[in-house]
Amino acid sequence: MTEFLSAVAEQSFLQMSLLAGLLASLGCGVMGTFVVVKRITFLAGGIAHSVLAGMGAAVYFGFDPLLGALMAAIVSALLIGWIRLNWKTQEDTLIGAIWAMGMAIGLLFISQTPGYASSLTSYLFGNILLVPEQDVWFMAILDLLLLLVVGLFYRQFLAVIFDEEFARLRGVPVSFFYLLLLCLIAVTVVLLIHVVGLILVIALLTLPAAIAGHYVHSLGGMMLIATVLGSSFTVGGLALSYSPNLPAGPTIILLAGSAYVLSAIFSHYRLRRRARQSLSMP
Amino acid sequence: MNKVIELEKVSFSYGLVPVLQAIDFSVKEGEFLGIVGPNAGGKSTLLKLILGLLKPQTGNITVLGKKPTQQRTQIGYVPQYPGFARDFPITVKQTVLLGRLGASRMLGRYTEADHLAVQQALGELEAQDLAERPISALSGGQLQRILLARALVSEPKILILDEPTANIDMRLETDIFTHLRELNKRLTILVVSHDVAFISDYVSRVACLNRTLVCHQTDAIDGKLIQDLYGEPVRRVAHAH
């Protein structure tokens, strides 16, 4: 651990990695809470995986993979949202199809780009030690955008994820805000790609918020705790993996996953104990 | 008196299944109207048409002189089943505040007026002490009062309730209807119930619905009518909960 700390002090690439991790945690704390509470993990997974199409196209045509990822994420969010709103009977099959087709398109593009096969692993599983400074700036801008939109329309988002029918009756344009929410989730997915890669995104997006949900009963509280937890997992995973030279992404996910399992068991028994106590009271 | 809700020859079907046929029906300002009828008689569908959540295949609906979708924010609605998960992480106060959307400003936070309206609505229903509770900790009767507060907080002109007492006990049922009678002094109220005998003590008029409008009148409902409606004799005292 001391080795990691002194490395952070000396190496600017590690400082960039930490900064990227913290920026990503902010996004996943805020948007992950919406995903967990609205129970749309599967939708978010579909958006995350189909992002590979955009990244593959980007390396093939020679532009920034992160920009390609952002465009693919938005397109896939709108497509999946449209299916969810208008084609409910076959929703899960269609989203599964988009999930796999997005990855297939990405793999085909990458296979046709000479010398890029090695970058495939870092798209899929992340490579937080190699975040270019300009990408950190890009992530900061995405975070800012995310916070601004959520801050301005917090009540509308809350209304839509809480009770769609009632929101519609209060004159809230439900479809618009639902699609906007999915687009913001798409932005978050892009934020997380460097940290854990698009395959593991879904875990870092949902686990911190789900743990927070075990202990607090407000959306704002969940967002705050999830952000703090996400930061701890990212920094902790980075520190743990540094000396033994393990890949950081999987270490971060295992840390988050173990914390979630422990928390789920703990809160289950806490709830049972409370139920017993309330029964034994006169 | 002005007609606040008007339906002309309205028919509606889900797919091939006809639910409502040729409904002519109107509600006047200040009325307390009960809609009764058997299950699957189209009562909830009628409400959803008035709220603009469904569109009739034929016929015409006007609410306060305009199309239903344009007047949604003028209506307070209490659904039969809440459209949210009971374990959603939200307090009573936040839930009722959401009823202010559409009356409040579009961007940013709630205003002072929004908070005041919530306090007033909770006070009117004697539920101030529930304000900071998470909704997961409410009993059925408390939840019903909160849903009513959420509908009232936007200061609507019309209040529409779908089986407001289906999931609560008899004493609370009387409570809710006493509240409604008080509210009727300033609001037009439309309430759906399967319980003919009970609501006839409170409402000013009853409409009976079983795919078509079986009756639509001010007179007291007699046994013959109930038999027409349900297809079999119903004991009026039957009020088991």
Automatic annotation (TrEMBL), chain A:
Membrane topology: Multi-pass membrane protein
UniProt KW Hydrolase keyword: no
Keywords recorded for this protein, A-Z: Membrane, Transmembrane, Transmembrane helix, Transport
Any one biological process term the GO annotation gives: response to zinc ion
InterPro entries, sorted: ABC_BtuC-like, ABC_TroCD
Principal localisation: membrane
Superkingdom as given in the UniProt entry: Bacteria
CDD domains, per the entry: TM_ABC_iron-siderophores_like
Cited Pfam families: ABC-3 (PF00950)
Membrane spanning residue stretches: 12-35, 42-63, 69-87, 94-116, 136-154, 175-193, 199-216, 223-242, 248-271
GO CC annotation, single: ATP-binding cassette (ABC) transporter complex
Subcellular location: Cell membrane; Membrane
Family, as annotated: Belongs to the ABC-3 integral membrane protein family.
Designated name of the protein: Zinc transport system permease protein
Organism: Thiothrix eikelboomii
TrEMBL record, chain B:
SMART domains to which the protein is assigned, alphabetical: AAA
Keywords of this entry: ATP-binding, Nucleotide-binding, Transport
Gene Ontology MF term list: ATP binding; ATP hydrolysis activity
ABC transporter domain ranges (all copies): 5-236
Annotated SUPFAM superfamilies: P-loop containing nucleoside triphosphate hydrolases
Alphabetical list of Pfam families matching this protein: ABC_tran
Keyword field contains RNA-binding: no
UniProt cross-references to InterPro entries, sorted A to Z: AAA+_ATPase (IPR003593), ABC_transporter-like_ATP-bd (IPR003439), ABC_transporter-like_CS (IPR017871), Metal_Ion_Import_ABC (IPR050153), P-loop_NTPase (IPR027417)
Family: Belongs to the ABC transporter superfamily.
The name this protein goes by in its record: Zinc transport system ATP-binding protein
